[in-house]
C-alpha cells in the first residue's frame, strides 16, 4: 500500500483546502448571480407585458390597431436592449398587431392544441424567452372565477437572452479566475513550507533508515531552525547510543555463544540419555502389554475352571455349610473375573482399540435384561430398584446395546453398593431427535452415602475411589466410572453427576443412537386389558409412577395408592376391581401384612397380584398359597407384568411358533469363500426373500451378474481368485447390475476400513456374525419399500410352509463348557439346531489343518499368509458359538491390520492355540449331547 509522505500532506492540507474553499465560495456567488439575472429578465418581461395587457383591452374590443401599435412600439423602443418582438394575438390566435413585422411571429404564436394561459407564462427556446400574458375583458376582471374562454387574446413578447447569458458567463469566468489565483498563492506558500520543513525532515528520515539498517555511523548534518534542530540533535544522540549499545551487545552475544555451545553439549548428552530412557519405557510398555495378555490368560483360564466346577459341585447333594462355602467361592471368583474384565476394558480404551458396534436392538428389552442382573443385589439389601422409561422414547434402535448395558450396570451397581436403605431409581428419556438420530439420557438416582467436594474431584480417576476407606469397605478396582465415561464419549455422549454428602447421588450419562425404521419388538398382547380397572398399591413414588405409566399405556383404568390408609379408604368406597397389584418390601413383618392385605382384597377382587423385592421361589409359593394369583419379583417390567395379568396367553406361547411367512419377491446374491458362512447367510436369507444365488469368489459373482439382475448383493471382502473390492468395481463397470446396492460383509472392519469400503463404492457394510435384525434392516433400507407393504405380502407367490413349533430352550445343554457356547451358536443361526450343529462340526473339522498352516506361516514369518488364515477363521468363528476363540482371533487380526509384527504377537498366538485345543477337546462331547437331544426331540 502506498504511504502518503509529509510533502504530500503539506500539499493536501494547503492547496487542496484553499482550492475547495475557493470553488465553493465562487460557485455559490456565481450561482446566486446567475439566478438573479434570470429573475431580473423575467421581472422586466412581466413589467412590459402585463401593463400592455391591461391597457389593450379596450383597443382590442374596439378593433383600434393604431393605439395598440403606438403602445407596443413605444414599449419595444424603450426596452430594445432585451425585447426582440411584441405581438398581440386575438382569441382565435390571429395576429392583431406586432412591433416587428419582419420578425418571426411563428415563435410567439400558440400551437393549435394550446389554450390561452390564465396568467403570464414563459417558454424557453434557443437564445430567447417567449412570455405570453392573457388579455381579459372587464367581466373577467370582476369575476375571476369565470372560465378563461372570455379572454380577448394574449400578448406575446420575445426576449433576447444573449446579453444576460454573456453576463452570467462573465461572472463564472471571474469566479474561476479568483479560485485559480487563490490556489496559486496557496501553492507558493506550500512549496515554501516544503522547502523549509519537509526537506530537512526527509533527510532525517533517510538518516534513521540508515541507522535501522545497521549503519550506526550515520548522522544528520546542516543547520536547522527551531524544533527541527532539536530533533536533529536527538537523532544524532540516539545513533551514538545505539552504536555504544551495539558494541556492548556484540560482546554479550560472543559470551552467550560460548555458553550456548556448552549448553548444547549438555543437551546432546541429555538427549542421548532421554532416548535410552524412551527405549526402556517402550520396552517396559511392551513387557507390560505382554504381561497383561499373559496374566489375563493365566488368570481367566483357572478362574473359568474354578467357576465351572463350583457350579457343577453346587448341583450335587450338599450340606448347608458346604453349599454356603461353595457359593462364597463362586461369588469371589466372579468378583475376581469382573476385576480382570475391568482392567482389560480399561487397557483397550486406553489404547483406542475399543470398537462401538452398530447393531439393531430394542432399548426396553436391553434395559430389562440389565435390571434382571441388578435385582438380586438390590433385593439382598432390601433396596427399592425401579425403572421408568418415558413414553416418547423409541424402542427400536441401532447401536451398541452391550456397552449401554455396561454403563448402566456400572452406575446402578455403584448406586446399590453405596446405598444401605432407600431406593435406586433409573429414568430414561430422549433429549433431542433429528431425522433418524436421537440423543438419550439415562439417570441413576440413589439415597446412599453421597460424596463431599474433595471426593467428587477424584471420582473419575483410574484405579481410585472416593477414599481408601471406601475402597476397603466396598471393594472394587475404581475403574467402573472411568470405563463408563470413556464408553459414553465413544458413543458421542457424556457422563456426569450431582452428589451431596449423606444425601445421595445422581449419576447420568448420554449416548446417541440411530433410530431403526424396522420395528424389532412385537407389541405385548395386552388388548384384552383395555378399560379394565386395577387397584395399584405402591409406597415408593418412583416405582408407582413408572408402573402406572405402563398400565396407562395399556389403556387400563389405574387407581394408584401410596399408603395403607388410602388403600383401606379406597376399598371401603369401591365395590369391585378387575385386578389388584400390591407392592410390598420384604421385612420380618411382611408375610403377616401381605396375608392380611390379600384377605382384605379378596372381598373386592378375585385377581390379586403381588410384587416383592425378593427372588425367593419359596416366598412366592407361600404368597400364592395364601390367595395371590401371582407373585412378581421387583422391579416390575412390562413383559413380566403382562405375563402375570394375562397368564393364559403366555402359557400358550412358551414355545415359539415358527410359521412360514410370505417372502419378498426379490433375487439376492450372496458371495463368500467360506462354505459355512455361505451356508448360514443362505439360510438366513431364505427366510426373507424368494430367490437366492451364491458364489464362492468374486469372479463367480461377476459371471452371475453378467447374466442375472439382482435386487441386492452381499459381498465378502477377502476371497481367492478375485477379492470383493475388485468384484464390486467389475460389476459396476461391466454388468447391468451397476445400480444394484452391494453390501460389504466382513468379519473384521476397523473404523478406517469401514470408511474405505464406503469410498470404494459399497452401499453399506455388515460385520460378521450377521445379525438377523441387521439383515432385515439392510433389506428394508436398500430394497423397494413397496415390496414390504401389506399389499405386496398378499400378492407375493412365496411358498408357505406348514406351521411348526420349535422350542429352542429344549436344546439347552446341561453340561457347562468354557470354550463352546451352544446357546450363542443357536442364536447366531436363528435357533436352527441342525444348521448350528453343521457349522460347529465344520469348524471343528477344519481347526487341525488351520492350526498347522498358521504354525508353518509363523515359522516362515509369512505375515500375508497368517493374515489370510486368521481372517478366514475369524469369519468362521462368528457363527459357531466359540466366543473365546473368536475374541482372540478378532484381536490378532486387528493387531495384524495395525501393522504389528508376528514376534510382537507371541503372547496372543500362545492364547490362540490354547483356545483351539480347548475347542477340539470339548467339541466331541457337545456334539454328542446335541445329537442325543435332537434324537429325543
UniProtKB/TrEMBL annotation:
The keyword Kinase applies. Its EC number is 2.7.13.3. One of its GO terms (molecular function) is ATP binding. The modification Phosphohistidine is found at residue 871. One of its GO terms (cellular component) is plasma membrane. It is a multi-pass membrane protein. SMART domains: HAMP (SM00304), HATPase_c (SM00387), HisKA (SM00388), REC (SM00448). Keywords: ATP-binding, Cell membrane, Kinase, Membrane, Nucleotide-binding, Phosphoprotein, Transferase, Transmembrane, Transmembrane helix, Two-component regulatory system. Residues 832-930 form the HPt domain. Residues 195-247 form the HAMP domain. It is an enzyme of class 2 (transferase). It catalyses: ATP + protein L-histidine = ADP + protein N-phospho-L-histidine. Residues 667-783 form the Response regulatory domain. The chain crosses the membrane at residues 9-31, 172-194. The modification 4-aspartylphosphate is found at residue 716. It is found in: Cell membrane. Residues 294-515 form the Histidine kinase domain. InterPro entries: CheY-like_superfamily, HAMP_dom, HATPase_C_sf, HATPase_dom, His_kinase_dom, HisK_dim/P_dom, HisK_dim/P_sf, Histidine_kinase_BarA_N. This is histidine kinase. It comes from Thalassotalea euphylliae.
Amino acid at each position: 500500500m502506498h504511504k502518503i509522505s509529509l510533502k504530500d500532506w503539506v500539499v493536501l492540507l494547503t492547496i487542496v483546502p484553499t482550492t475547495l474553499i475557493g470553488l465553493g465560495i465562487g460557485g455559490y456567488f456565481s450561482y446566486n448571480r446567475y439566478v438573479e439575472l434570470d429573475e431580473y429578465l423575467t421581472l422586466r418581461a412581466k413589467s412590459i407585458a402585463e401593463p400592455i395587457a391591461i391597457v389593450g383591452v379596450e383597443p382590442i374590443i374596439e378593433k383600434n390597431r393604431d393605439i395598440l401599435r403606438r403602445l407596443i412600439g413605444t414599449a419595444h423602443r424603450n426596452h430594445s436592449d432585451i425585447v426582440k418582438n411584441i405581438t398581440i394575438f386575438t382569441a382565435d390566435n390571429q395576429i392583431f398587431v406586432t412591433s416587428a413585422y419582419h420578425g418571426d411571429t411563428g415563435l410567439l404564436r400558440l400551437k393549435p392544441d394550446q389554450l390561452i394561459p390564465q396568467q403570464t407564462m414563459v417558454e424557453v427556446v434557443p437564445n430567447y424567452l417567449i412570455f405570453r400574458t392573457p388579455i381579459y375583458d372587464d367581466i373577467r376582471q370582476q369575476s375571476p372565477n369565470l372560465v378563461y374562454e372570455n379572454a380577448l387574446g394574449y400578448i406575446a413578447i420575445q426576449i433576447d437572452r444573449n446579453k444576460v447569458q454573456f453576463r452570467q458567463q462573465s461572472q463564472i469566468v471571474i469566479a474561476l479566475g479568483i479560485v485559480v489565483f487563490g490556489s496559486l498563492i496557496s501553492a507558493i506558500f506550500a512549496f515554501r513550507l516544503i522547502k523549509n520543513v519537509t526537506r530537512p525532515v526527509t533527510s532525517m528520515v533517510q538518516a534513521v533508515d540508515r541507522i535501522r539498517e545497521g549503519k550506526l555511523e550515520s548522522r544528520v548534518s546542516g543547520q536547522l531552525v527551531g524544533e527541527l534542530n532539536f530533533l536533529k540533535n536527538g537523532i544524532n544522540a540516539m545513533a551514538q547510543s545505539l552504536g555504544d549499545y551495539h558494541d556492548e551487545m556484540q560482546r554479550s552475544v560472543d559470551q552467550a555463544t560460548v555458553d550456548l555451545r556448552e549448553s548444547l553439549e549438555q543437551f546432546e548428552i541429555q538427549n542421548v540419555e532421554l532416548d535410552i530412557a524412551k527405549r526402556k519405557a517402550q520396552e517396559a510398555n511392551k513387557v507390560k502389554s505382554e504381561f497383561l495378555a499373559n496374566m489375563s490368560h493365566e488368570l481367566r483360564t483357572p478362574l473359568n475352571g474354578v467357576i465351572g466346577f463350583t457350579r457343577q459341585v453346587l448341583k450335587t447333594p450338599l450340606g448347608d455349610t458346604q453349599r454356603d462355602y461353595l457359593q462364597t467361592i463362586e461369588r469371589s471368583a466372579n468378583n475376581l473375573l469382573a476385576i480382570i474384565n475391568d482392567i482389560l476394558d480399561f487397557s483397550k480404551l486406553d489404547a483406542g482399540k475399543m470398537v462401538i458396534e452398530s447393531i439393531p436392538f430394542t432399548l426396553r428389552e436391553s434395559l430389562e435384561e440389565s435390571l434382571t442382573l441388578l435385582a438380586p443385589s438390590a433385593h439382598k439389601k432390601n433396596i427399592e430398584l425401579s425403572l421408568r422409561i418415558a413414553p416418547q422414547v423409541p424402542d427400536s434402535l441401532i447401536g451398541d446395546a452391550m456397552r449401554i448395558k455396561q454403563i448402566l450396570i456400572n452406575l446402578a451397581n455403584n448406586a446399590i453398593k453405596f446405598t444401605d436403605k432407600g431406593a435406586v431409581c433409573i429414568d430414561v428419556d430422549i433429549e433431542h431427535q433429528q431425522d433418524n438420530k436421537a440423543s438419550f439420557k439415562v439417570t441413576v438416582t440413589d439415597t446412599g452415602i453421597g460424596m463431599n467436594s474433595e471426593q467428587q474431584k477424584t471420582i473419575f480417576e483410574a484405579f481410585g475411589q472416593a477414599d481408601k476407606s471406601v475402597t476397603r469397605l466396598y471393594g472394587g478396582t475404581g475403574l467402573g466410572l472411568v470405563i463408563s465415561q470413556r464408553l459414553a464419549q465413544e458413543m458421542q455422549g457424556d457422563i456426569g453427576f450431582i452428589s451431596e454428602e449423606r444425601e445421595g447421588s445422581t449419576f447420568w450419562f448420554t449416548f446417541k443412537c440411530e433410530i431403526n425404521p424396522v420395528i424389532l419388538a412385537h407389541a405385548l398382547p395386552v388388548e384384552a386389558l383395555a378399560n379394565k380397572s386395577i387397584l395399584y398399591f405402591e409406597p415408593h413414588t418412583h416405582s408407582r409412577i413408572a408402573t402406572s405409566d405402563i398400565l396407562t399405556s395399556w389403556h387400563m383404568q389405574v387407581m394408584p395408592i401410596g399408603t395403607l390408609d388410602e388403600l383401606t379408604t379406597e376399598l371401603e368406597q369401591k365395590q369391585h376391581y378387575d385386578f389388584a397389584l400390591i407392592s410390598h418390601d420384604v421385612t420380618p413383618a411382611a408375610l403377616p401384612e401381605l396375608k392380611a392385605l390379600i384377605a382384605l382384597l379378596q372381598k373386592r377382587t378375585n385377581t390379586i397380584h403381588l410384587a416383592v423385592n425378593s427372588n425367593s421361589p419359596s416366598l412366592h409359593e407361600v404368597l400364592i398359597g395364601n390367595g395371590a394369583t401371582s407373585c412378581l419379583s421387583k422391579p416390575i417390567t412390562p413383559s413380566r407384568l403382562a405375563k402375570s395379568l394375562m397368564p393364559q396367553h403366555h402359557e400358550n406361547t412358551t414355545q415359539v411358533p415358527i410359521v412360514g411367512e410370505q417372502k419378498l419377491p426379490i433375487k439376492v446374491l450372496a458371495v463368500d469363500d467360506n462354505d459355512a458362512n455361505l451356508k448360514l447367510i443362505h439360510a438366513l436369507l431364505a427366510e426373507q426373500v424368494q430367490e437366492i444365488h451364491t458364489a464362492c469368489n468374486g469372479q463367480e459373482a461377476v459371471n452371475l451378474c453378467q447374466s442375472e439382475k439382482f435386487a441386492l448383493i452381499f459381498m465378502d471382502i477377502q476371497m481367492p481368485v478375485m477379492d470383493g473390492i475388485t468384484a464390486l468395481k467389475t460389476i459396476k463397470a461391466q454388468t447391468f447390475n451397476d445400480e444394484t446396492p452391494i453390501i460389504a460383509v466382513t468379519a473384521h472392519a476397523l473404523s478406517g476400513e469401514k470408511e474405505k469400503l464406503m469410498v470404494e463404492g459399497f452401499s453399506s457394510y455388515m460385520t460378521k456374525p450377521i445379525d438377523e435384525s441387521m439383515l432385515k434392516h439392510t433389506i428394508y433400507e436398500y430394497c423397494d419399500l413397496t415390496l414390504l407393504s401389506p399389499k405386496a405380502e398378499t400378492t407375493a407367490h412365496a411358498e408357505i410352509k406348514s406351521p411348526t413349533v420349535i422350542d429352542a430352550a429344549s436344546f439347552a445343554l446341561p453340561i457347562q463348557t468354557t470354550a463352546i457356547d451352544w446357546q450363542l451358536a443357536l442364536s447366531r443361526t436363528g435357533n436352527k439346531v441342525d444348521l448350528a450343529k453343521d457349522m460347529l462340526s465344520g469348524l471343528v473339522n477344519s481347526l487341525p489343518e488351520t492350526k498347522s498352516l498358521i504354525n508353518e506361516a509363523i515359522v516362515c514369518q509369512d505375515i500375508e499368509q497368517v493374515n489370510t488364515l486368521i481372517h478366514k477363521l475369524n469369519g468362521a468363528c462368528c457363527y459357531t458359538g466359540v466366543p473365546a476363540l473368536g475374541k482372540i482371533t478378532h484381536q490378532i487380526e486387528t493387531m495384524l491390520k495395525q501393522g504389528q509384527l508376528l514376534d510382537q504377537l507371541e503372547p496372543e498366538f500362545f492364547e490362540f492355540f490354547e483356545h483351539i485345543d480347548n475347542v477340539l477337546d470339548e467339541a466331541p462331547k457337545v456334539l454328542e449331547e446335541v445329537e442325543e437331544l435332537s434324537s429325543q426331540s
